[in-house]
Amino acid sequence: MALRIEKLSKRFANGKTALSNIDLDIRQGEMVALIGASGSGKSTLLRHVAGLMAGDAVQGSRIEVAGQCVQRDGRIQPEVRRIRSQVGFVFQQFNLVDRLPVLVNVLVGSLHRLPWWRGWTRWFPAQERRRAVEALARVGIAECAPQRASTLSGGQQQRAAIARTLVQGAKVVLADEPIASLDPESSRKVMEILARIHREDGCTVVVSLHQIDMALRYCPRVVALHQGRVVYDGPARELTPALLRSLYGMQADEILNGSASLHGAAPAPAPVAAPVAAWPQPVAA
Ligand SMILES: Nc1ncnc2c1ncn2[C@@H]1O[C@H](COP(=O)(O)OP(=O)(O)OP(=O)(O)O)[C@@H](O)[C@H]1O
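== Phosphonate ABC transporter ATP-binding protein ==
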């Protein structure tokens, strides 16, 4: 199992319950969309999986990534740093070091295999540099390698962030709203690259998205969160607008309209019961 979550709950110090008793299994090689309206708990869930946040101290609660325990009973495990080095993270805000060349940003993915002084001196072995150049070529921005990260467009920066996970050799990639700040064309490219590394490298990809159409187009499986609970977990093709409305009520508009605006169209009320065939079909894995 690439990802196993059992009995995960999270109540913040301010009393806000962000996650309620989440159970979720994701097999190696799946591509899964995590959807939900703003505040439904998507980022909080991914942060827990990354071991960046400890869940509530619930007896028997547990998160495992690639068979290794990240946290148990609300306690992050000591080996989390090592586990984290095997998981690729892609964030909405790219998380590149602006002033460093794109190539060096991508090479950061190799640091977990190298002695500490390599990062300090930025003196990377030729084999790792080659790997980084290849990764940049795979995401279509090889020519940007020497440029400072700050000179890249948002879409190019996100592709560089994905190249970093390729160099890392991550078998599990967690992407938290990776296209939320991108234009439609860049969004499509980023989703296609994620789908490709899933398909070609057998990576498990979990991607949180606001845009339901992107989820349906690229992810065979959708997990929908609402107020910190899993309200749907199943095939993307069965998630109709009518079902979304029954799950989310008024908040369904946010998810449905997010998709309309993504295509540059004015947000329009979604059909109450569009036939499944009217929805974009997920690409074959
Ligand atoms: N550090 C925190 N302290 C208190 N409440 C928090 C904290 N982080 C998140 N929350 C609350 O937890 C809930 C879930 O937030 P989260 O960011 O996970 O949602 P989301 O689905 O990722 O939303 P968005 O799509 O807007 O990013 C929200 O109500 C949010 O206000």
